[in-house]
Structure formats: structure tokens, C-alpha cells
Specification:
With 391 residues, the chain is an alpha/beta fold. Helix content is 42%, strand content 16%. Helix 3 packs parallel to helix 11, helix 4 runs parallel beside helix 5 and helix 12 runs parallel beside helix 14.
Length: 391
């Protein structure tokens, strides 16, 4: 009898040959210093998306523990059945106030928010336009919708305008998808220009602000706030799992939009509600980041320190139009970037070596945290200086 899984071993060999094979690395509790590997060793953590250091904050942990004691561990059902808790409403109201929208809806993850929202808004009668560097879940959501989907070159507003001129009139609805801060490059979308185009062509815009949320703008409200932009055409998506140190995602927008998604977003309707612990942790983190601006200020100081240090080293860093905590150092190929990553670990720094097919070209991806010290940044810069001399 033929083995229906005989193709797996050759497929895995191909992954190894292409240097695409990956395995998760065990690590300890989140922090600027983290224990990595087996046996564990302490490294400076430049891999984390816990940008404000809130995942291990005493008030955030206390809120999660209290919520478990009051509500238990699991929501035990979808929000429309038995899984809705007062905490969910409190968090959604807090997000809406923070983002300056009428309402918000919390999902079990940022990916779930995008995969549920996009197909709820558009279908085969509609048009979706997306940045080529968008996060994978935006692209997957566009394909799941069965809408006609075109990608435009990264941050190329002229190309987006041409697509709108050529195709918008042929479709019922149009949805433009873009990251606010691009997760693998650290640059920001030209949202002012995108929003103007959207309003001119009666297009909706969904901004995935997973990596701008909590970091940019007044009170950490995100990329739109940092750029001074607002529009009735915009849908704000974000995560609770990065700067807010918890788990989950959200959509913020008009009350009509949120009510519609409660009836049409399958990943919200058919998923168990976010746990009480995660919900309470996100709410406490949101309160903490708004009450304590020193977290964002400390992060910005480390961003500036690393930018200036990389410039002195002559590193080929991608432009940084906003103070985002993500830095991309291009590498010529997967083998080289893996070698660089190991050398940095040998120097005490844990830096992600990212390769295709996750990204179009190999790179070191450095992410900063508010609890990094100036000495942590200097140690990374010293390690990079040695690495560049060897190359």
C-alpha cells in the first residue's frame, strides 16, 4: 500500500538544503536578559516584541492572577454563547477610548483579527490592494476573501494610485491593506498619502498596527497617532501580545463596523473568548503604559542610541522615519546570516537571524525593549563592530 505521506521526507530535505529549516529555541521568562537554549545561558534579549517590558510587570501579572482567581482559566465558550465576561467589555471600551474610535472588538490573536475581518468585509465582487511587505496574515486574509487581490511594491504610493485608477471602478468595494510599522523592516507606511487616496476612491483602509501599538504616538496610540492622521475610511487593527505583553488582537473603528464584525467575522464568532487572565493583563498593561510615559521615553532613548551607534559603524541599516524598535541589517544569504546570529550569541547577544521565505532577503532583525540599559546597547554595538571587521 502506497504511503500518502512519502513526500514529507524529501520536502524536509529540501528545507534543510535551502537553509529554511527552523526549530524553536527554548527561553526563560521575558526580560532584557533572558536564559536561552539547553542548557540555558544568559543573553541580552534583542529578539523580543515585549517592547515596553510589560509582559513581566508586577501590576500586569497581579491583574492576571486576580482574574484567574475570580473567573477561572478559560472562557469556556465563544463570546456569543457562554464565553463573554465583563472584562471583555471593559477592555474593548478602554481600547476604543485609547484609539479614539467609537468601538473595538477583541479577538483571540492578531492573526485571527485579520483573518476574520478581511473576508467579512470583501468577497469575490470586491478589490483588495496590499503592500508587498505586509504581514503574512494580511495576505492570507486577502486570499481567503476571494476578492481580486493585487500587491503594490513596498510603500510605493504611485503604484497604489495606478492600481486604484485602473481597477477601482470595476468592483463593488475596495479594501487597502497595510502594516503601520512593518514587522521585519521597522519602517512605517506613508499613511497620510494612503488615506488621501482611499478617500478619493471610496476605499476602506485596514492598518495592521501590531508593532506601532503602545510604542508610537501620544499615549502609545500607534502609527496613525504618531503621523497625526485620522479618517472615517480607516480600520485600526492591533495586538495585545507585543507592547501590551499579553495575548490577543483587536479591531477598532465605528460602532457599525464592530457590530457588523460581531455578526460576520468567523474567527470571532466561532472561537472561544479570550481568557480572563489575558484580558485582565492586557487591560492592566494598557492602563500602565498610559500612566507611565517613562516606558516609551526609555525605549526611544535606546532607539536613538542604537541608531547613532549603527551609523558610526557604517552599517547598511534601512531608513527609520519613525522611532520604531525594529532594526533590519541586510545579509547576503541565509548561510551568512545564520553565521552572524551565532557569532552574536557567542558575544552574549540574542539577535534573530531571519531568512526567506519569511522575508524576501536575509537579515539580522534587532528589536529593542524599554528595559534595555545603555550598556546592553553598547555590548551589541561592540559585537557588531567585531562582526563587520571579520566580514
Amino acid at each position: 500500500m502506497a504511503d500518502p505521506f512519502a513526500w514529507l521526507k524529501p520536502a524536509l530535505k529540501t528545507l534543510h538544503h535551502a537553509q529554511w529549516y527552523r526549530q524553536p529555541t527554548p527561553s526563560g521568562a521575558p526580560g532584557a536578559m533572558v536564559s536561552v537554549g539547553e542548557p540555558p545561558r544568559p543573553l541580552i534579549n534583542f529578539c523580543s516584541n515585549d517592547y515596553l517590558g510589560l509582559a513581566n510587570h508586577p501590576k500586569v501579572k497581579a491583574a492576571a492572577i486576580h482574574a484567574i482567581e475570580q473567573w477561572g482559566t478559560g472562557a469556556t465558550g465563544s463570546r456569543l454563547l457562554s464565553g463573554h465576561r465583563p472584562l471583555h467589555r471593559q477592555l474593548e471600551e478602554a481600547i476604543a477610548r485609547w484609539k479614539g474610535t467609537e468601538a473595538a472588538l477583541v479577538f483571540s490573536s492578531g492573526t485571527a483579527a485579520n483573518l476574520g475581518t478581511i473576508p467579512a468585509l470583501v468577497d469575490q465582487r470586491d478589490l483588495v490592494l496590499g503592500d508587498a511587505y505586509n504581514h503574512a496574515c494580511l495576505k492570507k486574509g486577502a486570499r481567503l476573501s476571494h476578492a481580486k487581490f493585487y500587491e503594490y511594491p513596498h510603500n510605493d504610493v504611485a503604484a497604489l494610485a495606478q492600481l486604484l485608477e485602473s481597477y477601482r471602478s470595476q468592483y463593488r468595494r475596495c479594501l487597502i491593506l497595510t502594516d503601520g510599522v512593518f514587522s521585519m523592516d521597522g519602517d512605517a507606511a506613508p499613511l497620510d498619502k494612503i488615506l488621501r487616496l482611499a478617500e478619493a476612491h471610496a476605499a476602506m483602509v485596514l492598518v495592521d498596527d501590531a508593532h506601532g501599538t503602545g510604542v508610537l504616538g501620544t499615549n502609545g496610540a500607534g502609527t496613525l497617532a504618531a503621523l497625526g492622521q485620522s479618517s472615517p475610511t480607516v480600520i485600526q487593527m492591533g495586538t495585545l501580545s507585543k507592547a501590551l505583553g499579553s495575548l490577543g488582537g483587536y479591531i477598532a473603528g465605528s460602532q457599525d463596523l464592530i457590530t457588523y464584525l460581531q455578526h460576520r467575522a468567523s474567527t470571532w464568532i466561532y472561537s472561544t473568548g479570550l481568557s480572563a487572565a489575558d484580558t485582565a493583563a492586557a487591560l492592566a498593561a494598557l492602563e500602565q503604559l498610559q500612566a507611565d510615559p517613562s516606558l516609551r521615553h526609555a525605549l526611544r532613548e535606546r532607539i536613538q542610541q542604537l541608531e547613532e551607534g549603527l551609523q558610526k559603524l557604517g552599517c547598511p541599516v534601512l531608513p527609520h522615519p519613525l522611532p520604531t524598535p525594529i532594526f533590519c541589517l541586510p545579509a547576503p544569504d541565509p548561510t551568512t546570516v545564520l553565521h552572524w546570529g551565532q557569532k552574536l550569541q557567542d558575544a552574549g547577544c540574542w539577535v534573530a537571524a531571519v531568512r526567506p521565505p519569511t522575508v524576501p532577503f536575509s537579515r539580522l532583525r534587532i528589536t529593542l525593549r524599554a528595559d534595555h540599559t545603555p550598556a546592553h546597547i553598547e555590548q551589541l554595538l561592540a559585537a557588531l563592530a567585531v562582526l563587520l571587521k571579520c566580514c
